[in-house]
Predict the 3D structure of the following.
Amino acid sequence: MARSVARSRRARRASDWNRRAVEAARLGDHETAVMFFTRALEGAPREPSPRFNLGLSLERLGEIEKAAAAYSAALALAPDNVNAARRLSALLANYRIECPEALDARGLKAALAFETIDREPVAETALRHLAATTELGVLRAAARRVYAGRSGPGADGALPSPSIATRLFGKSAHALLSNDLFVRALETGINRDPALEVLLTAGRR
C-alpha cells in the first residue's frame, strides 16, 4: 500500500513538472523547459512524451547531440512515434553526431521502420553506433585492411573471394548478422563501404 501511494505521488509530481515544462516551452523559455522536462522524467522515466518534448527544447537550444539522444530514447519507448523519427532523421541528415553510442539502439531501429522519413542518415548513424558499441568497429577496420591490400598499386581491386572472407571473418560476421539493428541498417541504407561487403560475404557463407 505504501509503495502504491509513493508511486502515485511520484506520478503526480512528474505530471506537474511536465505541465510546467510544456508551458515554459510554449513561452519560448527552453532552458527552463529542459530543466522541468528532466525533473518530470526523474519521476516517470518510461514516459515517451516528456522525452520527445525534451528533444524539441534541446534542439531549439542547439544541443544537437542531446536532442538526438532524447529522440532516440523517445522512440525506444514509443516505436510508433513518427514525429520523433522525423526529427531524429532531420538532425542526423544535417549534423554529424560525435558520440553515436549515446543514441538508443532500439530507437534507431524503430526509426528505420518508417518508410516516410529519410532513412539514409539514420542507417549511417546506426552503423556508427554499432561500430562504437559492438565488434563491428574492429571487424570493419580489419576488413578495410584486407580490401586495401587488394586495391593498391598492381592489385585488381576485387573483393576477397567468399572462401577467404569466410576464413578471416566468418564467425564474427555471422554474429553481426544476428544483430537486428545491423540488419535493418543494411536493408534500409545505401552501403558504400567495401569493408562491409567483405563482412557480409563472410557472414552469408
Summary: The mean pLDDT is 84.
